[in-house]
Amino acid sequence: MLQHHMFNELNSQELRAQVAEYVSKYLSSVLERNVYPSEEAISDLVHFDEPLPEEFTAAGEVIDKLAQYGAPATLPTVGGRYFGFVTGSSVPAGMAAKQLATAWDQNCAMQVLSPICSKLESVVERWIVDLLGLPEQVVAGFVSGTSTANFCGLAAARYRLLQRHGWDINRDGLFGAPEIRVVTGEHAHSTVLKAIALLGFGQDNIEWVEVDDQGRMIPEEIPQLDEHTILILQAGNVNSGSFDDFTQINRMVAGSGAWIHIDGAFGLWAAAADHLKYLTSGVELAHSWAVDGHKTINTPYDCGIVLCADQDALVSALHMQGGYIILGDRDGMFYTPEMSRRGRIIELWATLKSLGRTGVSSLVTQLHQRALQFAGEIEMIEGFRVVNDVVFNQVLVQCANDELTDRVIQRIQELRECWVGGSRWFGRSVIRVSICSWTTTAEDVARSVHSFAVALDQVTGAS
Ligand SMILES: *Cc1c(COP(=O)(O)O)cnc(C)c1O
Questions:
Q1: Residue 236 Cα to ligand 1 middle (Å)
Q2: Does ligand 1 have an atom closer than 6 angstroms to the CB of 265?
Q3: What atom of ligand 1 comes closest to residue 292's alpha carbon?
Q4: Is 86's C-beta closer than 6 angstroms to any atom of ligand 1?
Q5: Can you list the positions of beta strands (E) in 20-128?
Q6: Is the CB of residue 238 below 6 angstroms from any atom belonging to ligand 1?
Q7: Confidence class for position 322, pLDDT limits 50, 70, 90
Q8: By the 8 A CB rule, do 339 and 320 touch?
Q9: Is the CB of 304 inside a 6 Å radius of any atom of ligand 1?
């Protein structure tokens, strides 16, 4: 009976039309919707507090419930006035491809499991290596985000450095292994620290390098490196958007035998924009890189890429075996920690296919220009100060003191014209504005800046 019912649902025109209608209703209002769910939408989430149903519920009814109570409690990050964290929107072709791929429901573990995903992974790998100006031999693994990509790149580093000292990490483990040094900047992203912990290096063993006022590693402060060392650099500081000076650092560490990994979650894409690629010059000399699709180039969420110039190290670090494995030309699971994976490559391919080289370049440039506009307009308002050099898409704004900054952030959030979060910058509170959506217009920026001014007025007027 249940099977019969579900066959009917699978072929139900009505169900498809219902979903299509909800999608279109959502997308046609999302750009104008409040940037944060209303109090009511959030309190309505109690409708999901129910025990697991005993009986079958029709798909249409399940979808109705999501549309009614789920949609209003989403964050409209697809829209143009959400500037929280570093959060990308979604390019229409990528979003549409994901809808189609939902029906395909591919498992990208092996070529034999999904010839189309295997093909797209091979093609996109070459496209990205080309776009980012990386060496020809670089290979890519398609993972959930930069957290995992950082983990994979550093796992490859660990494999190679230990292997060079006659130690097989896979067989011998980490206990009793030769020492590995990890060197990184004081502003390394928290996910880099998480990867360091997961890989067993120990966060207390990190050799920290002092940073300058933009959060860039000071090259002269880098300790002497050797063939036991992993050096982790950054393309895009999560607060200021600044880039380490790769060229200078390469010059200083050349010949040391150290492995260089670059966390370029959102910043690495600067390499694909004509006027911004000076920021990433020298990245091609690293050994591994981590970058997101879902931030700067606006693929749907759950899309990160690990890139590695040492294919053998990456594959050996993430390798898995089993009697049932059938090898193909490209089996994605050798480049990622997982075996079964959804077909995120479909959306990444569609996004790049749709944007093309010039589209990627102009998207990245547009994010930068909107950030410059934001900074320029906010500086005109007395009481606000931009505290970083706006080299990419991030703008850090401060008020006269921390208490005021914190209250203004809260007020901006309450006004719901735009959404920004707070962060800490050299011990002080800052408002962090991240321009990361292709939908953000010059008008969105002006409207948001106006909201900053209103918030400041209200907070100072009230005190
Ligand atoms: C966002 C970010 C990460 C983590 O990426 P996820 O895709 O969220 O896993 C790592 N490093 C930097 C600099 C980031 O901005």
A1: 10
A2: yes
A3: 7
A4: yes
A5: none
A6: yes
A7: low
A8: yes
A9: yes
Percent of the chain scoring above 70 in pLDDT: 98
Q: Whose CA is nearest to atom 5 of ligand 1?
A: 146
- Which of the 8 DSSP states describes residue 419? B
How many degrees, rounded to 5, is the angle at CA 71 between CA 65 and CA 75? 150
253 Cα–ligand 1 center, Å: 26
Instruction: Kindly give the residue spans of alpha helices, DSSP state H, lying in 215-303.
Output: 246-253
Dihedral sign (CA 341, 343, 347, 353): positive
pLDDT over 80 at 321, yes or no: no
Pocket test for ligand 1, best of 184, 292, 297, 436 (most atoms within 8 A of CB): 292
Helix (H) / strand (E) element for 290: namely strand 288-292
Work out the widest C-alpha separation in the chain, in whole angstroms. Answer: 72
Residue 58, pLDDT above cutoff 80:
yes
Q: At a CB cut-off of 8 Å and minimum separation 6, what does 58 contact?
A: 5, 9
Q: Tokens in use for 395?
A: 């703008």
Is the distance from the beta carbon of residue 263 to the nearest atom of ligand 1 less than 6 Å? yes
Q: Strands across the sheet with 428-434, in order?
A: 385-386, 394-398, 428-434, 421-425
CB atoms under 10 Å from CB of 363, counted, come to: 21
Binding site membership of 145 for ligand 1 (Cβ less than 6 Å): yes
Q: What is the pLDDT of residue 462?
A: 65
**Ligand 1 pocket test, candidate residues 198, 216, 263, most atoms within 8 A of CB:** 263
Residue 149 in contact with ligand 1 by CB distance below 6 A: no
Q: Is the CB of 244 under 6 A from ligand 1?
A: no
- Check: CB of residue 419 under 8 Å from CB of residue 83: yes
**CA–CA gap between residue 87 and residue 79 (Å, rounded):** 11
How high is the mean pLDDT of the chain? 96
- Express each pLDDT in 177-211 by its tens digit: 999 999 999 999 999 999 999 999 999 999 999 99
Question: CA 95, CA 78: separation in Å to the nearest integer?
Answer: 10
Contact 299 CB / ligand 1 (< 6 Å): no
pLDDT value of position 329: 86
Q: Is 236 left (phi over 0), alpha (psi -120 to 50) or beta?
A: left
Residue 250 near ligand 1, beta carbon < 6 Å = no
Of the listed ranges 33-42, 46-55, 63-72, 137-146, the one predicted with least confidence: 33-42
Instruction: Using the predicted structure, report yes or no on whether residue 324 has a pLDDT greater than 90.
Output: no
DSSP characters over 133-194: T--TT-EEEEESSHHHHHHHHHHHHHHHHHHHTT--HHHH-STTPPP-EEEEETT--HHHHH
**How far away, in angstroms, is 190 Cα from ligand 1 center?**
8
